[in-house]
Amino acid sequence: MGLKLYCGPPVLATDTKTVEQRLNCRVNLYEFRKGHSVTPEDARLGHLQPCCMSAASVRTFVQPIAAGLDPVTKPYICVMNLIGCIDEPTNFVISDTCEEQCYGMCETLWEPDHGPDELFEASAQALMNAL
């Protein structure tokens, strides 16, 4: 979506491509009008939701995850569910396959002040044990 903001829309491949095209169009228009790249606050204010909830006849079934850094390098994560509600937790987000199992493992292994190595180990263990 931007220099420090990424979006990953899991689920159906055709819906993922549709959302990607809509999102690229909205981001390009925004950058052209405003003159700067998209920030996490812009994602909060509605770049994700209109791309996934455009019209009832072309409803897409994706649960996009957005992750990035705001201008002062504070981490940002959010996930949008199938009905368009954006959730912005402070620790982790999960979407798509084995969601319930991954939540259980992540809640068990996650601690607030993990370093890079511990965070990688906890992420790897959560994914391997949930799948």
UniProtKB/TrEMBL annotation:
InterPro entries, alphabetized: Ntn_hydrolases_N, Proteasome_sua/b, Proteasome_suB-type
Gene Ontology CC: cytoplasm; proteasome core complex
One biological process term in Gene Ontology: proteolysis involved in protein catabolic process
Gene3D superfamilies assigned: Glutamine Phosphoribosylpyrophosphate, subunit 1, domain 1
Residue ranges that the Swiss-Prot or TrEMBL entry lists as coiled coil: none
Subunit field text: The 26S proteasome consists of a 20S proteasome core and two 19S regulatory subunits. The 20S proteasome core is composed of 28 subunits that are arranged in four stacked rings, resulting in a barrel-shaped structure. The two end rings are each formed by seven alpha subunits, and the two central rings are each formed by seven beta subunits. The catalytic chamber with the active sites is on the inside of the barrel.
Protein's name according to its UniProt entry: Uncharacterized protein
